[in-house]
Amino acid sequence: MKKRNRSPELKGLKFKEIIEIGKQELLAEDVFETELSSSSQQARKISFSGFNMQNIAQKVNMTRGNLYRYVVSKRELWFAILQEFIKEYNDEVDKIITNHEGTNFALIEKLITHYISFGSKDSHLMQKMIFMNAPQPKYQDGTPEMGPIERNYEKLDDAIPKIRKVIEKAIKAEELIQMNTQFFMQYLWGTIQGSILILEDMERDPNGTDEYKQEFQRFVMEQIHFKLRTYTPEYTSRNQ
Questions:
Q1: What's the whole-model pTM score?
Q2: What structural domains does the chain harbor?
């Protein structure tokens, strides 16, 4: 009979191993395609069909029953992978903000550059996590069951307000003029996510090169930089 790992250290290592194997299964499922509703002709998300829990249990050398002691459902495993991905991003963002010296404007550019770089580093996973739904929940008495990981996870969208807060600080410091920050963040999110999708396509292109990707990333940042500059007092005073 297989023994359960009881020490917190070993349990933590085993949990990381489960997440990594689950991530491999998620990336291996080639269902990331946009479907169209015949009635509305609007794009909709595809739900991930689910993990093979028996397969994952075998790969991490435990029983399926023991696996469910770590993640109570396929849906929980999805959120565990998502949470790890988001935590890595948020930790890096917090480090950038803590170590930054200089203007708020310069910090905004750093955070945007980091977002694009982070997303393009693992673009396939990022797009699946954002544009694909989690496995369907189980229901009890008409209410969807929710595990502890799902209850406590932060959405990747919740990382965007960190950039928004710096923009608002820049406005207070009069580095930027007043703007509709909600609209600007929506524009920014759409631009960045669209860029990451294009970078993912470049990864699939057999003729694509790292130099071409880097040139495209520089181009995107130049356009965002220009857009930000249009909200500086210097720019508006020159163009009134």
A1: 0.75
A2: 8-238 (1.10.357.10)
